[in-house]
Amino acid sequence: MHAVVTTFSILTSVFIVALLVLALLRWLQRRDRAAGWLTLAFLTLGVIVTVGRLDPSQPHGFLEDAVQRLEIELLVLFPYLLYRFATEFVPPSRRLQRFVAVLTIGLSVWTFALPHVPAAGEPRPAWFLAYVLVFLAHWTLLSILVTVRLWHAGHRQPSVAASRMRMLSFAAAALTVAIIFTAFAGNQSSVGALVTQIVALASCIGFLLGLSPPQAIRAHWRQPEQQRLQEAIIGLMTLATTRTEVAQRVLGPVVALVGARGAVIVDSEGAVVAEHAPPPDDDAAIPVEVEQPGAKLIVWTSPYAPFFGDDELRILETVTALTGIALDRVRLFEQERTSRLALERANEVMSNFVALAAHELRTPVTTVHGFVQTLNHLDDRLDDAQKQELRIALEQQTARMAALVEQLLDLSRLDAHAIDIAPQAIGLRSCLAEVVTVAAGARAGEIEVSVSGPDEAIVDPAVLDHIVTNLITNALRYGRAPVVVSAAVVEGRLRLSVEDAGPGVALEIEATLFERFTRAGVARDRVAGTGLGLAIARAYALAHRGDLRYEPGQPGGARFVVELPSVAR
Question: Of 12, 60, 296, 483, which one has the fewest beta carbons inside 10 Å?
């Protein structure tokens, strides 16, 4: 029996030394307070084991007595250091901290104030039994605090962190049991001594699994989260087609992997793609940022995660890198889709342009060609009145062709950004009156011009001419008189509106009103036009850093509002 007890004792000592080395390496790697307290705890335990083997069973002299008391003092400090490790993550109340500190200091003073420490086999006085009871109470109280705190905190952690915390919790409880058994065990050959060594060895194994579990055990513990994470990565790389889908597939498994209270994914431009929950506003949540090309992941973890979930936090780097790749893939997909839609739209516009140009030019060209043939071949058979009529018709058709060509040239210049904006001071009343006269011609009397406030505006007169001309032509062609042109300069902006009393714009074309080749309902069949006027007018307004919009007239009609900056450039 003695040999078996000795064997277990040696194994326990080896494990304690291994724990000391692991804790020291952990502290050298992290340099944080939690690792420091744990290193000190296992250092005291290692010294206890080493000194205990060298300490004589019956010390004689001051030096041997001092070494024995130092060993007892280290036994007093070990549960306190373990307690400080457990409370480093979430500090307890100040009252509990003070109580534990006073109790530990008092027991330490009592240790060195003992008259002497009875040797093995000697009778134990009442004062020493009282000291042993207080010692066991101190160790038991602190171990219970460590056990309960770590076990309770592990309920809210992911699998690996929870398992490691519970292992430490079990180890602290088992070591307390071993210490209690030691106090009441008989000699080293008894069954009680063997049970004590077995419990102590189990405690060391628990500490080892809690401090640095082997990768195989970690992988086993992590299996539920790992499976979900693998499914998310597969979906991330194969199924996610939008930025939101990418974020949604990643955030859930990430939160489960590290026990995060909140998580946010930010793209390469700094925009938040999605968040799992709003960022916690308390001090108990620790933000962890992982940045990789194309994406940044921010998780708010519990204070325990950086210590017990260090591997999981490193996995986040891989997940973030894959998320960045997926976001880039989605961005390229969106760019490709946008480009494809733009090309399709450009092809549609080009097809409409060709069809419209062919249709609109065919009639005047055919008419002009017929008139020219008539004048060329039948000139001697026509009287002066007929020749004059043909000349007037030729002039009208060529004017129609010239207007269409001018509109097409306007659009090409606007598309190429070849319009130079040159603001200058103009008189609104005189400028608008001139535009109305030219644009409306014989129907100028149907148009009313109203200018309120200052008469002077600082705008490009050519741009204003193009916009108002197109709007007036549109109002006379599709609306009804009277047409009101109103203008005012307010806070450095020229606000101009053209309103008619016609039927207004049909609801089905309001959304595409300013697109090229859009024409208003019945007017498409009954009124000549190209469907380019409003598109040109708005393009000029945008080139002038302004805008053109449509508003239903009150109580009826169509109302187009132009806003242009009226400042010197």
Answer: 60
60 and 20 fall within a common domain: yes
N- to C-terminal Cα distance for the chain? 101
- Which of 520, 483, 523, 522 is closest to 505 using CA atoms? 520
Quote the CA–CA distance of 226 and 218 in Å, as a whole number: 11
If asked whether residues 21 and 102 sit together in one domain, one would say: yes
Beta carbons of 57 and 120 less than 8 angstroms apart: yes
Neighbours of 30 (CB within 10 A): 14
Tell me the pTM.
0.56
**Regarding predicted confidence, which is higher, 76 or 235?**
76
What is the average pLDDT across 448-455?
92
Q: How far apart are CA 248 and CA 270, in angstroms?
A: 18
For 520, the enclosing helix (H) or strand (E) is none
| Cα gap 417→519, rounded to integer Å | 25
Q: Domain boundary at 186, 221, 256, which?
A: 221
Q: Do 225 and 211 contact (CB within 8 A), yes or no? A: no
Confidence of residue 283 (pLDDT cuts 50, 70, 90): low
Q: Are residues 514 and 540 in the same domain?
A: yes
Distance CA 217, CA 111 (A): 41
Closest CA to 146 of 88, 94, 95, 221: 88
> Are 51 and 179 in a shared domain?
yes
- For residues 124 and 333, give the distance between their C-alpha atoms in angstroms, rounded to a whole number: 83
Name the residue among 415, 506, 494, 509 with its Cα closest to residue 461. Answer: 494
Say what the pLDDT of residue 567 is.
67
CB 483 within 8 A of CB 553: no
Residue 445 and residue 365 in one domain: no
What domain range is 93 assigned to? 2-221
Q: Rounded CA gap, 516 and 511, in Å?
A: 12
- From the list 396, 343, 339, the residue with the least C-alpha distance to 367 is 396
Quote the radius of gyration of the chain (alpha carbons, Å).
Answer: 45
Query: How many residues are recorded in the chain?
Result: 569
Peptide bond into 555 cis (omega under 30): yes
Phi/psi of residue 291, each to 5°?
Answer: -115, 130
Q: Which two three-digit tokens encode residue 397?
A: 């058709």
> 323 and 348: one domain?
no
pLDDT in tens, 295-327: 888 888 888 877 777 777 778 888 888 778 777
**Beta-strand runs (E) in 82-201:** none
pLDDT digits (tens, 9 = 90+) for 515-538: 776 665 444 444 556 677 888 899
Domain count, the chain: 4
pLDDT tens, position by position, 554-563: 888 899 999 9
Indicate the pLDDT class of residue 484, thresholds 50, 70 and 90. very high
